[in-house]
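Posting this for the archive.
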Amino acid sequence: MVTTATIPSDTVASWQGHEYDARLLADGAAYELFTPYPAEGFTPYERCFHRYVHGTEVIQPDEPYVAYPDVPLSLPIHSHTDSVTLQNLTQKVNLTAPERDLVRNVRSTARVRRGTRMMKPMSAAQVSRQLNSAATVSGICFREFDTAHLRLPEQRQALAGDPDIGATISYALRWNAVSETDYVPTDVTTFPGLPGLRSRERRGALIVGTGFLPSPTELVPEFATADFAEIPLTSGAEIVAYTGQGEEVPLFQYQATSGTWERMAGSQWRRLLGGIPGNTGNRTRFFVEPNPWSGLVAVHEGRQVAAIADLGFGRNRFDNDVFVTFLPGNTTPTTVAAPQRFYVKATWKGVDCVVVDNRDEWLRLRLVQPNMNDFAQLNVNAVERGVYERWAHSGEVVDRHAVAIYYCPCLA
């Protein structure tokens, strides 16, 4: 017999007019609901049944007004506008002017601020590359707040930029945003050419151009790193896995002070670690070198030094403003001033690109504005959803210059 004592809950929540034992997830962004009996949408879990729902769908009897970690999407108050109508509009490639204005206005309410937890779903191969390359992130990503309830592998397939089709385990990279200037919506205004790329010219799902994930059921705002450039990860960034039942397991944590990924998962999660190419499950530390083409620098005593951002992962991450460096011979962090992110742009055959790597006389270039014409002209490769790259001889690449994005200390 299943009793309340055997259900792994820590609170009670009301959903669709019924009360359930529940477990709070991602600071209230999602809830795991439990019932001792079979119910529609609930799947077996240990000795009961469970499902995941978004925090905005749930009411806690003792706390009807919840302070969410991030601002939810907001809809205008109109008798003819509801979430179903908006959902349908976000899936249309061709919108009328009033429809596009409505979608754009709603999309603008999904803000990124300093401390917002960002999430990028990853394939096992992408995790392997992340553990063995510079601690940066780029491409299509999401706020954790909008995706915290999508925890089953089949649910996360639509989010993935390079999906592992049929996999029973899914992976993701999670980090804290430093500035809203690092992220842009995936709408047609920002990336006019992306929606026109056909299925054989892309990886992952179509980019609709409304700034929302292509999904018949989920209303999830999408983001891309500005210029598709690499963004330095904050200290404490994590690589997590999701099991077939939706359980989240932290696998590795990035320690910026030592430049290493440290394993967090114990031996009981060896099967999750073993699914990563090149990882035997026994390795506990991965050392990564900085990327010379993108990074974070600051000023200390009149000199420019390499810097790291450490905002923490608690609720106070929204208020923290910690940029530090480690001086030679000093094991304690030193606070720095005037932090700025940099990356390198260039022009190749008349097309704007970001430089992401080099090998001898060759440069790895990434399109800033992917479109059909440049795809055909440059014969670029679809690396992941929205990201297109190609090696080019350095002699063909002109106008190489660093772009500096200043992080004002007062910026929230």
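The first strand starts at residue 11 and ends at 15. Helices lie at 83-90, 97-107, 124-131, 144-147, 153-156, 270-274, 372-378.
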